[in-house]
Write a structure and sequence with these properties.
Protein name: ABC transporter ATP-binding protein
Shape: globular
Order of helices and strands: EEEHEEEHHHEHEHEEEHEHEHEH
GO molecular function: ATP binding
Helix content: 25-40%
Distance between the termini: 48 Å
Largest sheet: 6 strands, mixed
Number of domains: 2
Strand order of the largest sheet: 6-7-8-3-9-10
InterPro entries: AAA+_ATPase, ABC_transporter-like_ATP-bd, ABC_transporter-like_CS, P-loop_NTPase
CATH class of the largest domain: Alpha Beta
Keywords: ATP-binding, Nucleotide-binding, Transport
Structural class: alpha/beta
Pfam families: ABC_tran (PF00005)
Bound molecules: adenosine-5'-triphosphate
CATH architecture of the largest domain: 3-Layer(aba) Sandwich
Number of helices: 10
Length: about 325
């Protein structure tokens, strides 16, 4: 089976009165890809995800989902499931009853719907018979994901699925999504957490004020050509500082200026990748062990900030 495009959007626009929420969006999402949608508040992410779910209709452009052009009807395209603005759940029903109600709405027999299976997938088996009213935000998010999985979608559309999840819940959800993608399901998700996007997504689309400012593989955003601040923890901070001062193309930065915790053993260096490589080999050569070397702000977050700032400048 060859890969196909789960989403092919061209020139999508959407207006709310005078507000231009989407302004000519192009988006390609391949089968089995987890695609991240990121952007500042009000960029248009939820609006775009709503269009993919058939909750609203674009004012311009063309949209194909799973190979079928989307018409003007307000209905989820076949094979698509997910949620925006949090999952819609009945608080007075239990987790199982919520899923059974949803199965009934979709004409699926609840005995064969696989309710136990999807609850197990999202780690909610133990609370299957608890009322949703008492659920935390993270539990609701996981139940929303279970509800989406019930239809065995080929495209999953999720608006901030990691919202409210504790680290264990997040790990669980990440595992579910990566397994689905490995089996050929495409996933589009929005997130304000760049670390989540980096952990999960092979491609990312950055949106600002309704326009795409970057779309493509995360690797293309790698900060090879731009300077980043790195936290450096070594076995000998004094000697490491002296080595850093001697390394060309690199400078020491105050931790507070870099926006990271101050610690006397910690150095923050600002450099491009080649200068950083040079520093590491000098440290190793001098017998100084490198215990931690990580960007203060991830390459995606740095690119995100730079690109969205450029867009905002251009809009002024
Ligand atoms: N139903 C609506 N009526 C009027 N304006 C709307 C409506 N929905 C969205 N907008 C406007 O469209 C723009 C895009 O909003 P949208 O919710 O899609 O952004 P977002 O990227 O999801 O933001 P956030 O990160 O804050 O969730 C904003 O200016 C918003 O105020």
């Amino acid at each position: 089976m060859g890969t196909y495009l789960a989403i092919r959007a061209r020139g999508i626009s959407k207006y709310f009165g005078d507000v231009v929420a989407l302004d000519g969006i192009d988006l390609d999402v391949a089968q089995g890809q987890i695609h991240g949608l990121v952007g500042p508040n009000g960029a248009g992410k939820t609006t775009l995800l709503g269009l993919l779910l058939g909750l609203s209709v674009a004012d311009g452009g063309s949209l194909e989902i799973l190979g079928t052009p989307v018409g003007r009807a307000l209905a989820a395209p076949d094979g698509v499931a997910g949620f925006v603005d949090g999952p819609g759940l009945y608080p007075s029903l239990t987790a199982s009853q919520n899923l059974a109600a949803l199965a009934a709405l979709r004409g699926i027999d609840k005995r064969t719907a696989g309710i136990g299976d999807v609850l197990d997938q999202v780690g909610l088996t133990d609370v299957a018979d608890d009322r949703v009213r008492g659920f935390s935000l993270g539990m609701r998010q996981r139940l929303g994901l279970a509800a989406a999985l019930l239809t065995k979608p080929r495209l999953l559309v999720l608006d901030e699925p990691a919202n409210g999840l504790d680290p264990a819940g997040k790990k669980h959800v990440h595992r579910v999504l990566t397994r689905l993608a490995a089996d050929g399901t495409s996933v589009v998700l929005s997130s304000h957490r760049m670390d989540d996007v980096e952990a999960l997504c092979s491609e990312v689309t950055i949106v600002a004020t309704g326009r795409v400012v970057f779309s493509g593989p995360l690797g293309k955003l790698a900060a090879e050509n731009s300077e980043l601040d790195y936290r450096l923890l070594t076995s000998d901070p004094r000697a490491a500082r002296a080595t850093a001062v001697e390394t060309a193309g690199l400078r020491l930065v105050d931790a507070v200026e870099a926006g990271t915790r101050q610690d006397e053993d910690l150095l923050v260096v600002r450099a491009k990748v080649p200068a950083l490589d040079d520093l590491v080999s000098r440290l190793v050569h001098a017998g100084i062990a490198v215990r931690e070397l990580a960007p203060v702000v991830s390459p995606l977050e740095a690119a995100f900030l730079a690109l969205t700032e450029q867009q905002q400048e251009a809009d002024r």
